[in-house]
Design goal:
Blueprint lengths: L1 H8 L4 H38 L6 E4 L4 E7 L4 E7 L2 E6 L3 E6 L6 H9 L1
C-alpha cells in the first residue's frame, strides 16, 4: 500500500522537468546574443577587411609591425615594406587592421606626377 501511494505522487513530474530545463535554455540564449553572435560578426568583418586589402594600404600585423603593402599574392601572402628597401612576406590572416587606404600608385610615382 505504501508503494502505490509514493508511485502515484511522482506521476506529475513532467512540468517539473520543463521548468528545470527552462533556465538552461535561457542561459544558452543569453550566451548566444552576448558572446557567440558578436564574435561571429567580428570574424566576418575581419575576413571582409582582409579580402579588401590591396597594394598601397598601410596595415598593422598581429605582431605589431606597421608597413605598407607592396604586393598581394593569390595564395594568401602579402609583401609588406616596413622600412626603405626592407620587405617581408606575411600571411593575410595576420593583418590586424588597415590603418589607411592607399591607391595602386607608389610614392615614387606620386612624386613624379607632381614634378611633371
Amino acid at each position: 500500500m505504501l508503494i502505490s501511494e509514493a508511485y502515484a505522487q511522482a506521476g506529475g513530474g513532467t512540468t517539473d522537468m520543463l521548468t528545470s530545463l527552462l533556465p538552461l535554455v535561457l542561459i544558452f540564449v543569453v550566451f548566444y546574443f552576448l558572446l557567440i553572435r558578436p564574435q561571429q560578426k567580428k570574424m566576418k568583418d575581419h575576413k571582409a577587411m582582409i579580402e579588401a586589402v590591396r597594394r598601397g594600404d598601410v596595415v598593422t600585423t598581429a605582431g605589431g609591425i606597421i608597413g605598407k603593402i607592396v604586393k598581394v599574392q593569390e595564395d594568401g601572402i602579402v609583401q609588406i615594406e616596413i622600412a626603405d628597401g626592407v620587405k617581408v612576406k606575411v600571411l593575410k590572416s595576420t593583418i590586424g587592421e588597415v590603418r589607411s587606404k592607399g591607391g595602386d600608385v607608389d610614392d615614387d610615382d606620386k612624386a613624379e606626377a607632381k614634378a611633371g
